[in-house]
Design a protein that fits this description.
It catalyses: 4 Fe(2+) + O2 + 4 H(+) = 4 Fe(3+) + 2 H2O. About 80% of the residues lie in helices and about 0% in strands. By secondary structure, it is mostly helical. The chain has a single domain (about 5-70, about 80-150), classed as Ferritin, core subunit, four-helix bundle (Ferritin). Helix 1 runs antiparallel to helix 2, helix 1 runs antiparallel to helix 3 and helix 2 packs antiparallel against helix 4. It is elongated, with a radius of gyration of 17 Å. The chain starts with a helix and ends with a helix.
Length: about 160
Amino acid sequence: MKGNPELIKVLNALLSDELSAINQYIVHSEMNADWGYQKLHEYFEKRSIDEMKHAEKLIGRILFLEGIPIVTNYQPIKIGSDLIKQLENDHHSEEGAIQAYNAAIAFASEVRDFATKEILENILNDEDRHIDEIEELQDQIGHMTLPIFLTTQVE
């Protein structure tokens, strides 16, 4: 099914964001593993896998719409040198993703591609959950202090 060319461009822009997020989260995951924070390692690793699933859905939709997935474009990847910076960078990335998905959903509605809209809404729900979980970790750090919080992340 030949899709709207502008919508395919939007989907490729979202794909670029997701591919960038995969890399950012996996580096944060491995940094935390190196520091001995196994629970944070697993948290960031799971987040990276979630972003991979989003990329997979976007690629599948682009192909369905007879577009070409562009997997070579990346956004700047912001690696935090410590957990606080990692969470700040990830929060910023998720905020951008939420804005981008909301705009894409509106555009998909405008061009009357409701199947794409539904796919994007499902991904948006995940992104909302991601930012909520980041804020939860930030709140825990605020309540406990960073040193105490980090003691809870070791297995």
